[in-house]
């Protein structure tokens, strides 16, 4: 789940995948897989919620799985024979078969009921949210000018700017209310939820994370104080305002904030805090927050699921497997589909990580796929269809992993992979090829040879920018750099990319209005470096140290791994003309196939699941890299993934040399470091350097032939590692990326 965050970024501004006025149910469930009300919590005030009646039923015990419909004993479904009744073997066989058919039918009915309820709840909440936002921001049509505005921004960037502006307006309103009512826990939660939602959608280096964390802690203190009062008075803490005692807090997952019990409210806040810590790369803190929730209710599905995801990042696979197994046992409604994705990753590392091995997952998935397929065919509500498509995609990808890793049945593996991606693409808008071509052409036209002034730009070499196509080996490169005591890898949560909008606007203003461009650029560069350092200090203070002797060592370099910054090399060079820009490149079809089979977070990389759009995206990437090599010859340092695999000692030494730092032998032990790795390559990078990834696409060469043809001449990449001090071994000197 924690997903890679480098996919939704444009050439000029951070991406946004949903509107403040109603993020799609697909985005909400993809990111959280539960509690759509929390995902929409940025809307400030919640009105009375629409709660399915059967969600309000009291569970018989804390260990009772979350269910939508629980047939009564009087219904006769699956009832045991009456006492004294004689049953022949044939009758027993017939009854078992009837029971099996009823179970299959009931599963389909349960799924239908579940999605109808979810969609109904979300739509009601979205309507209430939009009305509250309208009232609280005063955004009425009467207050708007009827005259059209001049110089209106157009295209994707304009839409993203509007989303960011609307979100910031709502957050500003919530902040005012929070300051007016500092003792109101609900106001605190709504404000913190809004900040967290913004961090999910707008990738700006997590600049609001610390504020949100602080506000969540204030809310927790308020709730705990009230909860302790009830304990002191001998009153229950698991009773919502409606007076119905709740023994299983999973019943409250769809409740509005003000309709939750104190236990449910506290669990919800701790779970959201855990997600925020995760996004801030404070993984130990994330686990601790989930533990606080699970100390109140050990079966709280939201916390169990996402604690499992965090444990994967920390390399604690067995513990993650335990969490996911528990989710599969409890979540009979199958709302937490991330459990299937997670458990397949854990099993792929080592089957012993999960009690019962692959069968723990496979048996459930094989029953779920046909039931969900049947319901998707009859679903007419777009949000419900999108949610079912997301669920089916995850199930098929889990089975792809099973057959690819365990059974080695490549035919079945491909069938599941291709079907999962087909279902995913069936509910997405078509790829806008014309828009992408226009974006590429704009970059090429603007950043031409001679565009950059020779005396403009900071001399600071603190940032190191890693660029390239997704799934190209960038995580391995970043881990090698991060293993040096004076280098810190910041991942995809890019400070530079988050400031790109203001960087662009400030440069345009200085250029067109006679400002001092040199001073403006230096100020912008200093701001990026300062925020990188401040962010590191915050994360470092909240991270368990592997070696306390190095805890006071302040880094001299920060590695920014926002891969799509290959679009923004022009701006990078303007601010940091001496900063190292590393372009990592892998064999084209290995890269492209890896991108196709991976499930990226919803956003700019959705279209990698389709052959045509994926090939177009890859060719655009190659075209822009070729452009930079023409207009800024030698500015980008190329690193071949194959050279890292075949000659890591040589590449690592040349890499550190290029940073201007002294060599440290511990760099070669990068795979032994206990650093958390928040990326889709989490499990791979912990293996160290391995050759399995070379030519890995060949297993599926036959079904991939249409993609090979679409990529065309760029199916090969004639590229050398250009690290200045790198001399490849003779056995590698004549090889190139893409040699078949």
TrEMBL record:
Belongs to the protein sulfotransferase family. Residues 100-112, 144-156 have a biased composition (Basic residues). Residues 86-99 have a biased composition (Basic and acidic residues). Pfam families: Sulfotransfer_3, TPR_8. GO terms for molecular function: protein-tyrosine sulfotransferase activity. The chain crosses the membrane at residues 29-51. It is an enzyme of class 2 (transferase). The lineage of its organism: Eukaryota, Sar, Stramenopiles, Ochrophyta, Bacillariophyta. Residues 57-114, 130-160 are annotated as: Disordered. InterPro entries: P-loop_NTPase, TPR-like_helical_dom_sf, TPR_rpt, TPST-like. One of its GO terms (cellular component) is Golgi apparatus. Residues 64-75 have a biased composition (Polar residues). This is protein-tyrosine sulfotransferase. It catalyses: L-tyrosyl-[protein] + 3'-phosphoadenylyl sulfate = O-sulfo-L-tyrosine-[protein] + adenosine 3',5'-bisphosphate + H(+). Keywords: Membrane, TPR repeat, Transferase, Transmembrane, Transmembrane helix. TPR repeats lie at residues 267-300, 301-334. Its EC number is 2.8.2.20. SMART domains: TPR (SM00028). The keyword Transmembrane helix applies.
């Amino acid at each position: 789940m924690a997903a890679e965050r480098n996919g939704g970024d444009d050439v000029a501004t951070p991406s946004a995948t949903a509107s403040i006025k109603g993020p799609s149910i697909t985005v909400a469930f993809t990111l959280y897989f539960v509690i759509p009300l929390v995902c929409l919590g940025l809307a400030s005030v919640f009105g009375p919620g629409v709660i399915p009646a059967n969600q309000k039923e009291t569970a018989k015990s804390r260990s009772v799985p979350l269910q939508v419909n629980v047939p009564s004993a009087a219904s006769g479904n699956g009832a045991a024979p009456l006492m004294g009744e004689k049953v022949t073997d044939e009758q027993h066989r017939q009854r078992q078969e009837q029971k099996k058919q009823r179970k299959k039918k009931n599963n389909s009915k349960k799924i239908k009921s579940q999605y109808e309820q979810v969609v109904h709840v979300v739509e009601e909440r979205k309507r209430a949210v939009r009305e509250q936002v309208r009232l609280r921001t005063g955004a009425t049509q009467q207050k708007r000018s009827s005259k059209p505005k001049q110089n209106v921004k157009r295209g994707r960037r304009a839409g993203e700017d509007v989303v960011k502006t609307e979100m910031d307006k709502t957050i500003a309103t919530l902040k005012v209310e929070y300051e007016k009512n500092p003792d109101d826990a609900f106001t605190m939660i709504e404000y913190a939820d809004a900040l967290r939602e913004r961090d999910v959608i707008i990738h700006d280096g997590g600049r609001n994370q610390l504020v949100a964390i602080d506000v969540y802690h204030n809310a927790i203190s308020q709730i705990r104080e009230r909860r302790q009062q009830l304990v002191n008075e001998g009153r229950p803490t698991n009773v919502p305002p409606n007076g119905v005692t709740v023994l299983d807090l999973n019943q409250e997952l769809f409740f509005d904030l003000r309709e939750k019990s104190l236990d449910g409210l506290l669990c919800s806040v701790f779970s959201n805090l855990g997600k925020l810590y995760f996004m801030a790369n404070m993984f130990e803190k994330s686990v601790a927050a989930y533990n606080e929730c699970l100390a109140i209710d050990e079966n709280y599905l939201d916390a169990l699921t996402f604690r499992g995801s965090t444990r994967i990042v920390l390399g604690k696979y067995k513990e993650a497997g335990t969490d996911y197994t528990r989710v599969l046992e409890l979540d009979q409604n199958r709302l937490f589909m991330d459990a299937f994705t997670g458990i397949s990753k854990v099993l792929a590392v080592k089957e012993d990580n999960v009690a019962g091995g692959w069968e723990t997952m496979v048996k459930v998935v094989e029953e779920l796929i046909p039931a969900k397929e049947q319901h998707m065919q009859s679903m007419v509500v777009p949000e419900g269809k999108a949610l079912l498509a997301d669920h089916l995609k995850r199930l098929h990808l889990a089975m792809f992993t099973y057959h690819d890793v365990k059974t080695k049945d490549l035919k079945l593996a491909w069938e599941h992979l291709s079907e999962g991606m087909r279902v995913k693409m069936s509910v997405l808008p078509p790829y806008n090829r014309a828009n992408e071509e226009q974006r590429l052409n704009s970059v090429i036209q603007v950043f031409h040879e001679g565009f950059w002034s020779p005396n403009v730009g900071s001399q600071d070499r603190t940032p190191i920018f890693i660029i390239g196509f997704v799934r190209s080996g960038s995580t391995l490169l970043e881990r090698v750099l991060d293993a040096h005591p004076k280098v810190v890898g910041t991942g995809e949560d890019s400070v530079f990319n988050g400031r790109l909008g203001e960087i662009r606007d400030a440069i345009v203003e200085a250029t067109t209005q006679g400002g001092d461009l040199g001073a403006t650029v230096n100020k912008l560069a200093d701001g990026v470096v300062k925020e990188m350092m401040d962010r590191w200090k915050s994360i470092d203070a909240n991270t368990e140290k592997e070696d306390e002797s190095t805890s006071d060592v302040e880094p001299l370099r920060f590695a920014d791994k926002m891969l799509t910054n290959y679009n923004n090399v022009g701006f990078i060079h303007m601010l940091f003309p001496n900063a190292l820009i590393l372009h990592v490149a892998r064999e084209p079809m290995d890269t492209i196939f890896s991108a196709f089979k991976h499930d990226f977070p919803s956003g700019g990389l959705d279209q990698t699941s389709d052959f045509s759009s994926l090939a177009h995206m890859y060719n655009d990437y190659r075209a822009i890299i070729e452009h930079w090599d023409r207009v800024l010859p030698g500015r980008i340092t190329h690193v071949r993934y194959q050279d890292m695999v075949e000659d890591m000692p040589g590449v690592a030494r040349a890499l550190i040399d290029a940073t201007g730092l002294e060599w440290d032998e511990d760099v070669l032990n990068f795979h032994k470091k206990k650093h958390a790795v928040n990326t889709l390559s989490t499990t791979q990078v912990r293996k160290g350097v391995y050759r399995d990834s070379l030519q890995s696409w060949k297993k599926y060469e036959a079904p991939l032939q249409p993609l090979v043809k679409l990529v065309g001449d760029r199916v090969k990449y004639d590229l050398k590692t250009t690290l200045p001090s790198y001399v490849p071994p003779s056995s590698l000197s004549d090889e190139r990326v893409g040699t078949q």
